[in-house]
Amino acid sequence: MIRAAVLSLLLIASAQATSAQTVACPPASSAFTLTTGTERAPEQVQVRFDRADLSIRVLPDQKRIEGAATLDFTATATLHWLPLELDGVFTIRSIVVDGVELSADDDWRQEDGRLWIDLGRELQAGQSTRLRIVYDGAPHQAKNAPWDGGFVWSTTPDGKPWIATAVQGAGCDLFWPCIDHPQGEPGRVDLHITVPSDLSAPSNGRFLGKTDNGDGTTTWNWTARDANTYAIALNIGPYVELSGDYRSRFGNVVPMRFWHLPTAPAGRPEALFAEFPKMLDFYEATVGPFPFGDEKMGVVETPHLGMEHQTINAYGNGYKLDGKGYDWLLQHELAHEWFGNQMTNATWDDMWLHEGLGSYMQPLYARWLNGDRYMEAELAEMRKSLSNRFPLVSGRAQDSGTVYSDATGPGLDLYYKGALVAHSLRLLIGDEAFFRSLTRLVYDRADPRPGNFRPVYRTTPDFIRIVNEEAGRDLGWFFAAYVYQAALPRLVLTREGDRATVAWADTAGTFPMPVEVEVDGRLRVLDMASGSTRFPARAGAHILLDPHNKLLRQLDFIDAYKARERGGG
Asked: What is the pTM of this model?
């Protein structure tokens, strides 16, 4: 093995500084560990992550885990050492590279949640390496899952262990060694989850069976392809399983599974399960084939609200009904199988492609079930929530903490402003171009069928390019105003005698969005190619801008409502 002298001088200096400190209390996760999506190290860009084989033993009484991760990589460029992310709260028992055990400090080093591993040779492009990392410890506990990341150690109403992971905001490194970045997906993940035998451990992908270990524990085995890093999840509890099949409009049969607590109110799990095929049919009609039909559509009841864990969506909405005619949480998390797991943002700066497009599916589903009025009601509620303090997309690399915080990024605007932008785009270019754009964004083709597509990474410029092609015109101005700037465009009406002028303001450039106006009850459409239009209107005529509420724009009455809400008045 090459000695530590070949490692980065910065790493050595950092190690010396760290070793000078005596830790008198249990280690805590670093700030680096507790965010995700930071820029990858150059060496991480120079490998393909082929496979992760994860054996994890969960010890509920101790709130600890014991892990063994076997990781396969193929070099795409020459490299000599490989950095991975793993929370520093874990004790690393051994690291083996291609059958050779490494020496701590000499051949591997952990700095601030990043693990640097000497591969022992110059790995050339096309060559592969296998790492095995054995570790254990008490993983970081979430304080308010799923809004912060970590383990949730809970108990069921009858006192049995009920455990879940939710790591979207902090990353996969909270419980397994990984490349903690959206583009760090392994080609396949095999999971071997060992739990007390009176508990179940539903997880990602296909079930490969379970093994009774003869010591009061059972190992549950799963395999999943192309798994989104934060969507790999552990779920442990005394579950009851509901099962059925969905016969897809594309000809295949998708297994459906729901793991719920036995203490759930009578009939509620079955009622929720009955919503599965209806939602699947909506998504397949609207976007395209369920992306993981060869594995399952899975849902598991969790001790936190929810998360889009791939093929094992977390559900913690308590079977609540809110008058929408469907369970909004189930519908939203299912959206992410398309917008998040099949199509994954290339960086966190493009997270609105997950959350905005995924959130737009709820009002569309309301329309699918009950008509336009119910879609419009949901859109109106979304409009009242907007902050418009930061743009949806900054145009630079961002981590999860920056993007999801209202203080530093778009925060909840990712969801609701993103959905309203999608709705405005649909009204502008029409249903055919809009939905074809979604399909191409998600599948990288206009004619997806089971078996003819693979997961894709996407950016906002990718979406703009696809929309321009489908619409047959350059819509850069639309995205400049709605996605890349924080403030919404303002529509200004001025009057002079028997003439009126409508003009767009607060935009980065010319904003040629057409405008409908109603003058004394008569509708007309204004050509806004130059950003403004003058039209006849008698003095005293009643003029109503945008009578059908098609435009996403600044509205004084909503701004006043938001200001009063912030002031507590």
From this structure: 0.93
Q: How many residues does the chain have?
A: 569
Please tell me whether residue 438 adopts helix, strand or coil conformation: helix
Task: Give the per-residue pLDDT at 6.
Answer: 32
Helix axes 268-286, 328-335, angle to 10 degrees: 40
- Measured distance CA(50)–CA(47) in Å, rounded: 9
How far does Cα 253 stand from its chain's mean position? 26
Find tokens 């919404």 and name the residue. 488
As beta bridge partners, residue 490 has: 505
Rounded CA gap, 269 and 243, in Å? 11
Rounded to 10 degrees, what is the CA torsion of 130, 136, 142, 146?
30
Whose tokens are 């459409």? That residue is 525
Name the amino acid, one letter, at 516.
E
Distance CA 426, CA 217 (A): 53
d(CA 541, CA 539): 6
How confident is the model over 412-447, as pLDDT tens digits? 999 999 999 999 999 999 999 999 999 999 999 999
Q: How far apart are CA 246 and CA 281, in angstroms?
A: 9
Nearby residues of 71 by Cβ (< 8 Å), 6 or more positions away: 49, 51, 52, 53, 84, 130, 131, 132, 133, 177, 186
Q: In what order do the strands lie in the sheet with 490-496?
A: 490-496, 499-505, 532-536
Handedness of CA 450, 454, 459, 462 (dihedral sign): negative
CA distance to 41, 59, 554, 562, per residue, from 557 (Å): 48, 54, 9, 9
CA dihedral 459, 465, 467, 469 (to 10 degrees): -150
**Residue 40 main-chain phi, psi, to 5 deg:** -70, 150
Contact predicate 188/50, CB 8 Å? yes
- For 127-137, the pLDDT digits (tens) are 999 999 999 99
